[in-house]
């Protein structure tokens, strides 16, 4: 009997996943970080939590190698800056496919499912730069995939921002594509339809709340009552995500492409850097989303099947642009070191389960850099803190964030420690002309956590067609339509730290108030 029980448990462990997740759930994996987590550890996080789909913003050798042989479905991206060369020269597309797809295929290779050509290339903020490059690039990539014999198994699409469609009446059923993109979207949809590929759209309910004063907070989440719903000819929408999806469904129908499947390529909720960006709200949002996915009832205009959804994001990224907001570096359901931020049941059943964090993560020494009250030059403190924040991540200090309102000592210590940790704990990085000192006791207090940096490896890109280390960073796009849906608008950036004057003004202002 004992042997039979042992055999049964061994069978369960071998043949059943460690965690059950909602059908169609995936995660975005970005690497805009000063200390990226070892890809092998990240892949184990995916496996341990039962996440079987991952979306990458560009091809990196170490990441693709770590994904090899795992059966995790991979959507690999091509950055916008590559669209021109890919659209003009088929040989560039051939080289990209050879370097980033076929080189990783085989019996124990990467399970590629999609190539995502560009990332939100039709944003109004881009002023049409990529409008006539995206579809030709998509066609060349598909041609190269077909030539390599993998075009039937690997689909080609392009992730688009929700600003490509509008609704003149605010009602989802009146959704149409933006007038200036009508011909382009018709071509994109025709390509997707012909090749049985999905329309990929990025949607951010958090930004509706963040950007629009007076936006009903419950409508950004799920399961709210009729007092915070939208009525569309008798149909009640109780979440802006469902309304946004159906606006796209309506736009596709108007364009005679009502059967194109939809993938939500990015959706999530940040956990810091803004009054609405909290772990409590993130947990509430994801629990509602996962419950909707598990029910699989679809949306009013496309019932019976909810779209596949890729959470944004798997990990925090401390070098992302803060142009959209201070929350931008805190989208992960895991912190930068692969540890879960809050309990989350990925199955959608609402159980208070803890995610499985990264294992065998190597940290630097247990020491921190904090403000020294004993220093003689206290009058320079505001300037030194501002300088530190211009050169590190101080997004936890802004009003409403996890370290805000804790006094001058804590705020200075947060700034100094973040600079020190991101500088690999070098002794010179904890000086600030005597205003800082190294301590061995963790100065974390309440919601304000003082991290210790991890030891890291540098990932490598595969080809000149791969992106620099960026994913979705950076500016806002304000829709010119009468649409209630405002979504994220990334743009490239030359520097990992942004708006230094803004950060300087924020912290000099804060310290001036304190000292006065």
From TrEMBL:
Catalyses which reaction(s): Hydrolysis of (1->3)-beta-D-glucosidic linkages in (1->3)-beta-D-glucans
Signal peptide from the UniProt entry: 1-22
Segments of this protein annotated with the region Disordered: 461-492
Domain X8: 367-450
One MF term in the entry's GO annotations: glucan endo-1,3-beta-D-glucosidase activity
Alphabetic keyword roster: Disulfide bond, Glycosidase, Hydrolase, Signal
InterPro entries in the cross-refs: GH, Glyco_hydro_17, Glyco_hydro_17_plant, X8
EC number(s) recorded for this UniProt protein: 3.2.1.39
A single BP term in Gene Ontology: carbohydrate metabolic process
Similarity section: Belongs to the glycosyl hydrolase 17 family.
The protein, known as: glucan endo-1,3-beta-D-glucosidase
Annotated source species: Gossypium mustelinum (Cotton)
